[in-house]
Design goal:
By secondary structure, this protein is α+β, with helices and mostly antiparallel strands. It has 5 domains: 1-205, no CATH class; 210-272, no CATH class; 276-310 and 394-520, no CATH class; 313-393, no CATH class; 522-569, no CATH class. Helices cover 36% and strands 23% of the residues. The chain contains 19 helices and 25 strands. The strands form 8 sheets. Strands 15, 19, 20, 21, 22, 23, 24 and 25 form an 8-stranded antiparallel beta sheet that branches. Strands 1-8-5 form a 3-stranded mixed beta sheet. Strand 3 (37-40) and strand 4 (47-49) form a beta hairpin. Helix 2 crosses helix 6, helix 4 crosses helix 5 and helix 14 packs antiparallel against helix 15.
Length: 569
């Protein structure tokens, strides 16, 4: 049997194999008198005998047309399906009858049917229907039940009965499909890719895959780098070879970088993973420009250590005191309540104890009888005692943790380098890592949450960058940014309270942020209502491709550029 008949046998004979996954071989252009078959090399175009062919490859656009086997007629299909329906319907009816008597039986109902497989197999020409179904991607239920032996069981369960119901519901559809298929000649054809030859002379000129040493055929997807390394399609797809995202060279062992999501060769990955020491010169240069505007806070040291205090959640009694103050014209929030302060008309600050006494005095003047005055006085006494005895106003000290606030250039530089978190400030890798040097030069501070024995900040748990802002008079203030790492809002509260204590009242006015261009978030001090002129300014910035990092900044034009400025108060 020659190769052409073997190919046809492979494609057409039952048991069926989907021909769309196969391919054909281009036939010879002629056979000489001694029986040698000649083929045309699809690289150089020469006619060569079969023994001079180096290999075969899939020709671009080359396909061979075949026909699906018409192994069943419409009449045969009708008879087979009618017989199948006649056998299966009684079992379904019996099942439905049992369920009508007891609906819950459907979940554990079984029916012994040792004779059912034999009945189905005894249908004349059932094998033809199975052969037809095997060549089609549709009607999976029929294939599973009838042709894949799922029906060949001794007991019919709830699951099997429902599969049979699905099959019976699709009998008409299957019959219509078979009829349409047999009536439409176009549906009975299919095409498969065709392999074409390449001669030995051309085969020697082909590139060899540097990883599996196979020849890279024409029309095969491949890659060749600047080092003359080549990779075939198979090696690229199965991961044996990969392309470095940076230098675009091929490598067998690539390193995946989680921050960029890309793969790198060893040399590029080492360059990418430069540690802190690679940036020491730039850090030292930035530190020389630092005037240390907040050095008076550190008592001649570079680091200050403060306890880590956690606030208890305010109790119902505390909420009652806050509400009592509110209905009498005083406001406060959780932080100021714990400190013991409230505000009159949203402006004048005074102690909560004094505010409660003032409320009692003013309210008692509204009543004349002693009983009414006593009710007012008793309520104020109850509020005052609830405030003074509140356990929620006392901070709980966490002994195994503490906070370090540093003006040291190395501590600031390592804010996201060599830590358990990452950000755009990671040296060498972060999108805005050069801003680190600007922050050092500007005099930014850094706060770390550390374990009690980690005084050198080797494994901090979280950090907060404290940025410098300066007004037109040269007055500098320090405001905390967002938390990175694993810490609760108590970390931020502790840092903010330390800064508030050092800075007391902040001068009102416009402040310009110093340091790098990027900022994660604006401090809570800087809330401003958005005006129409502000919206116009945002529109101007967007039309001119100027990035706006925070909507609550006040953007001011300066020399046709926009600088970020915010106002306090």
């Amino acid at each position: 049997m020659n190769w052409y008949k073997k190919a046809q046998q492979h494609l057409m004979f039952y048991p069926w194999k989907d021909p769309r996954s196969a391919y054909s071989i281009e036939p010879p252009i002629y056979v000489d008198p001694v029986g040698r078959r000649f083929h045309t090399c699809h690289v150089c175009g020469k006619n060569v005998p079969e023994d001079q062919i180096a290999d075969w490859f899939l020709g671009e656009g080359k396909k061979t047309e075949y026909f699906y086997p018409k192994n069943i007629t419409k009449k045969e299909a009708e008879v087979i399906l009618a017989s199948l329906e006649k056998i299966l319907v009684p079992y379904v009816k019996r099942f439905d009858l049992e369920v009508a008597k007891n609906p819950y039986i459907q979940y554990d109902w079984t029916l012994a049917t040792p004779e059912l497989p034999n009945k189905i197999n005894s249908i004349p020409k059932m094998d033809k229907l199975c052969e037809f179904l095997q060549s089609k991607p549709y009607f999976s239920t029929f294939k599973n039940i009838i042709c894949e032996n799922e029906i060949k069981i001794d007991v019919l369960s709830y699951y099997s009965i429902n599969n049979i119901k699905t099959a019976l519901a699709n009998i008409v559809s299957l019959l219509d499909y078979i009829k349409d298929f047999l009536d439409n000649p176009k549906s009975t054809t299919f095409s498969v890719p065709t392999k074409v030859p390449i001669c030995k002379e051309c085969g020697e000129k082909l590139d060899t895959c540097s990883f599996c040493e196979a020849k890279i055929m024409p029309n095969e997807r491949s890659y060749k780098d600047n080092n003359d390394q080549s990779a075939c399609q198979k090696c690229l797809e199965n991961g044996t070879a990969g392309i470095c995202h940076s230098c675009e060279s091929l490598s067998e062992n690539l390193n995946h970088d989680e921050d960029t999501g890309e793969d790198y060769c060893d040399s590029c990955y080492e360059e990418l993973e430069k540690d802190y020491s690679a940036f020491e010169d730039e850090i030292n240069e930035a530190a020389e420009k630092n005037t240390y505007p907040f050095k008076n806070w550190f008592e001649g040291k570079e680091r200050i250590y403060i306890p880590y205090l956690v606030q208890e959640t305010l109790a119902d009694n505390d909420r009652n005191v806050i509400y009592y103050l509110k209905i009498n014209g005083y406001t406060t929030d959780d932080i100021n309540y714990r400190k013991g302060y409230c505000f009159k008309d949203g402006k004048r600050m005074l102690r909560i104890g004094k505010a409660i006494k003032d409320i009692s005095r003013v309210e008692s003047q509204k009543y004349k009888t002693p009983d009414e005055k006593k009710i007012v006085n008793d309520e104020s006494v109850r509020m005052l005692r609830a405030f003074e005895l509140s356990p929620s106003r006392k901070s709980k000290r966490i002994d195994n943790l503490k906070i370090v606030i540093s003006q040291n250039a190395e501590d600031v530089a390592k804010m996201s380098t060599g830590r358990n978190w990452t950000s755009c400030m990671k040296l060498g890798k972060g999108q805005h890592y050069e801003d680190v040097f600007c922050e050092i030069a500007a005099g930014a501070l850094i706060a770390y949450l550390i374990r009690k024995d980690d005084n050198n900040i080797e494994n901090p748990l979280a950090r907060i960058l404290i940025r410098r802002y300066t007004n037109a008079d040269g007055v500098s203030i320090a405001l905390p940014d967002k938390i990175y790492g694993n810490a609760s809002v108590d970390f931020y509260t502790n840092v903010k309270e330390w800064l508030d204590e050092k800075q007391k009242s902040l001068p009102k006015g416009s402040y310009e942020r110093k340091g790098g261009e990027w900022v994660d978030s604006l401090p809570e001090y800087t809330y401003e209502k958005v005006s129409k002129s502000f919206l116009k300014l945002i529109r101007y910035a967007r039309l001119n491709n100027i990035k706006i990092k925070e909507a609550s900044y006040i953007l001011l034009p300066k020399n046709k550029n926009i600088i970020n400025i915010f106002k306090l108060g």
